[in-house]
Structure formats: C-alpha cells, structure tokens
Amino acid sequence: MTQAPLGNVKDIQITKKGTPFSLNFLPQVTYLPLSVLITTFKKENVKRPLEGFGVLVPSKEQQNGFRTLGTLFSSMMFPDRAPSDVHLYTTFIGGTRNRELAQASTDELKKIVTSDLRKLLGVEGEPTFVNHFYWRKGFPLYGHNYGSVLEAIDRMEKDLPGFFYAGNHRGGLSVGRAIASGCKAADLVISYLNNASDNSVS
Fold first, then answer.
1. Per the database record, which ranges form the Amine oxidase domain (predicted)?
2. Which of 11, 43, 54, 176 could tie 72 with a disulfide, CB 3.0–4.6 Å?
3. Residue 73: which domain range?
4. Distance between CA 136 and CA 138 in Å, rounded?
5. Between the CA of residue 157 and those of 117, 151, 177, 200, what are the distances in Å?
6. Hey, is 60 helix, strand or coil?
7. What is the SS3 assignment for 90?
8. Judgement on whether residues 70 and 108 belong to the same structural domain of the protein
9. What is the total count of domains within the chain?
10. Distance between alpha carbon 70 and the CA centroid of its chain, in Å?
11. 28 CB burial (10 A radius; 0-12, 13-18, 19+)
C-alpha cells in the first residue's frame, strides 16, 4: 500500500513475479499549486454573515477585484471548530487562475483574503487568527490528456494483480468523490484478499 501521488508513481520500483515492471506508459501529470488560509473574525465584525457551506468565486469576478477561488464557512458547517464568538473561514488561493499567487507570503495572502471577505461578507478589521498551508502540488489538472491518465490507471490495475488505485484522478476532485474512490478500492482489496485466501485453502 502506498500514498504516492500519481505523478510520483513512476519513481516506485515495482516488480511482477520478480521481474521489474516498467511504468514508462504513465503520462506526465500536471499539478496546480494551492494555498489555503484559515482565518477567524469576531462575529460582531462580520456585517453580512451568510448561512451555508461557503462560496465559489467565478473567474469573471476578478474584474471586480476578487483574487481568491472561494471560501468555506467552516464554523457554519462545524460549530465546534471555533469559539462561539468568532466565524471561522477557510479560503483557497491559486489553481489555474493565480498560480504565482499561491506562492505568496502569509502576510500578502492575509491582505487578499481579508479584502475578498470584506466584499463578500462585510468583514471589518483584521482577522483574529491566521494559519497558512501551501501545497506545491495541490491538485491535478484535468486536461487534454486526462483520458490517457485513466487508461494508464486501468492498465496498472489489469497488469498488476493486487494493485488498486484510489484518488482524485479518478471520479473527481471533491472530498466526497475522493472518499467514494477510496471506499471502492477498499472493497476491491477485500474481495481480492478473500479470493486469494479461498484459493490457497482449496
């Protein structure tokens, strides 16, 4: 079992019945950088608090000064994640829209996120808490070669009995789809091991 991103699978030394198994058929996978900024604001300083999961910012809103991809209203979804007197927000920056911006400093991103939340929610003042996470390979870019990526995954599973793939390359990027992909792979692993056990007994 490995948790290697698909882009790094080529570096894994895999053998099949003692013979090295070449993975040179795997296509190049492009990943996008992503920064995530966690912020909190005092409830009295959020003049237009919105109910719901969060907001996505359409790319055309860049002309109106928005630079973030979207924000999750984390304390709305999970009230116990933050003290009762603050709103907790999770904001995403980067992707295809602003690759370079994903690599910006925490201070610069704090200014950008605060500006966008001011437009969206009417926040006032500075956040009372800030935490910044950066991923150089935040998520895969579904592009023109996506079909070849799926074909390569299918080939690995076909040619390597006992190999099962799960992740956001198959089925979608959302957390729900990634979990579904993992559950499906787990079921396949259990079935494979049960069949292997039955064959060894017989």
1. 4-190
2. 54
3. 31-140
4. 6
5. 45, 10, 19, 22
6. helix
7. strand
8. yes
9. 2
10. 13
11. exposed
